[in-house]
Here is the input.
Amino acid sequence: MAAAARERGADRFYWHTQEGNARARLLYDQVARFTGFIRYGYPL
Here is the structure.
C-alpha cells in the first residue's frame, strides 16, 4: 500500500479499524502512529 501511495504522489495514507479490534490495533501501533482521531459518520 505504501509503495502505491508514493507512486501516486501521496505523502501519507490511513485506514480505519474498529475501536475494539485489539488484535489489529496492536499491529497498527507497531507500524503507524495513532493520531487520536475517531471517525464519525453522518448518514445523508
User: Anything to note?
Assistant: The chain has a mean pLDDT of 91.
